[in-house]
Predict the structure.
Amino acid sequence: MSHDRIDSILQEERQFAPPPAFTRLARIRSASELAALRDRAAADHTGFWADLARGELSWHSPFQTALDDSAAPRYQWFTEGTLNVSYNCLDRQLANRGDKTAIIFEGESGDTRRITYAELHREVCRFANALKAQGVVKGDRVVIYMPMIPEAVIAMQACARIGAIHSVVFGGFSAESLKDRIEDAGAKLLITADGGHRGGKIIELKAAADKALSHGCASIEKVIVYKRSGHTINMQAGRDVWWSDAVAAQAAQCEPLWVESEHPLFLLYTSGSTGKPKGIQHSSAGYLLGATVTMKWVFDIRDDDVFWCTADVGWITGHSYVAYGPLACGATLVIYEGSPAVPDTGRFWKLCQDHHVTIFYTAPTAIRALMKHGDAIPGRYDLSKLRLLGTVGEPINPEAWMWYHRIIGHERCPIVDTWWQTETGAHMIAPVPGAVPTKPGSCTLPLPGIAADVVDEQGNSITKPDKGGYLVIKKPWPFMLRTIWGDHDRYIKTYWGKFGGKYYLAGDSARRDQDDYFWIMGRIDDVLNVSGHRLGTMEVESALVAHPRVAEAAVVGRPDDIKGEAIFAYVVLKGERPAGGVDTALTEELRAWVTEQIGAIAKPDDIRYADNLPKTRSGKIMRRLLRSIAAGEAITQDTSTLENEAILLQLQGKQ
Ligand code: 7RM
């Protein structure tokens, strides 16, 4: 699509109304239905959530108190109630959906498996019994370091079944990161695999686990190893047990352990502004409620859907929208083990075609990467079953949005741009697709019961359209994090310190437009101050990426004596990188382009070309690293999670 065409679409039709064919069958079919929900939440915040908790979850014993805020910001939801998350995901589906496919799995090399709800229930029970036989009891921490295979979900569900607290560590993390997380959590048991398949290679999970355990991890008593790759690995007698042996003698029935609403379901480590990752602690009832209602409100999940969220279970998205939310709704979900580029960049679209995917949820970085290879590739596949598309993880630039809309969604599918965080547990600001018109690049409006606002330094609401400020949540919500594992003070300081304990600080800056739509501008620490003007790095990136020759861009601030900060842009071109990283004419063109798109204030001072941007395995650009490089500092950051370490020299201008 030509750039002029995109421009004119964005100018003429900046809003995309819900497609009538979608709305006709949607759960929430009109703005007024949605408004009724919002009004109910506004009138009685805790009552609104309490009604949902009663209606959406199966309780063993009912809760008495909707919200206990007596020890705020340690909020407690649905106290005195007891339930089991695995029961809610599996047992309650057996009556009507026992033979329904729960999981459609495809490995990187094309091997497939279909698992029904009845089978999944049995496998989870058997594995839960195996965990008990290894001495795991309620409240014990279990670390899961697995490839993206159904057993990762089975392991998580089995922990939930017996009240063990899981902590999934993404399989792309190094032995060192695994060790840090095991030690911080004080985990008793580790579940891993011999290896996983990604990018045509075997990911040596067990070897990394051995390395982590040989350096420390004194709390680990047992390691359960699932055989996936089948290559030779070391098994340490007395410590390591094959999954198949551990479950061999176990019964396919396991009574769920009824736990309190607030019982921790899991820890998930996430990076903050310091080097030490935070163990974000989530609850059982409140968390599951969030995963469930957002599956319904935002994904409009129905019994005949095939739902595919491409996230790995190592991230919060893979918790809420792979391991828990879809199962709690009795949905059929797709799990794909491998890389989107194997055997070629049509793999995602082939998977959508072959498995009749109806709802597809991925990250903007993946969309941009696939878009780079052109329209012909998705054009080879039948994508007619798709009815809803979603994005998460970062703002989506309008060009990628339009491509997703036209080339993948064939202009039939609403796009839900979902803003949320590891800490928030589930979607917070996102369109309800049958009722809310979308605008490319905006995550639209807060969901019912979510008191999101944009405030200034003093905590006052910013009402002036398009003026940026701090994104905050002004009322507790059931699926919020409860604390940082082992560091409640850091929890209070990080999230509640800025506005005197009153508001949850998301750590993002945002603005609202004249229709009250939210536009995420970036992390607070990614907001530049150029000659006294605030400027989101992501805004400059979006402008750069809108240029027809630019595939990806990352922008950081470089200290500047006169302006405060200068703008430093790293750019990946569509096609070849200029010889030696120099193309003066193009650099001038891009500077002029950004000036035209945003204003002279946003004109990059430096542009450096690379074949790729340094990203974490979850696809987030490593901005702190780029800032160090821009400032000409020595690199002190840990680059072990870099997908592409060789890129460092190009970024430094040394190659
Ligand atoms: C789900 C997830 C959270 C951070 C968050 C934002 C950014 C996420 C969007 C987004 C703009 C979005 N959890 N972010 N979603 N920015 N639009 N739709 O990503 O904990 O890993 O990251 O990601 O900065 O604070 S996370």
Q: What stands out?
A: The mean pLDDT is 93. Residues 270 and 355 are 32 Å apart (CA to CA).
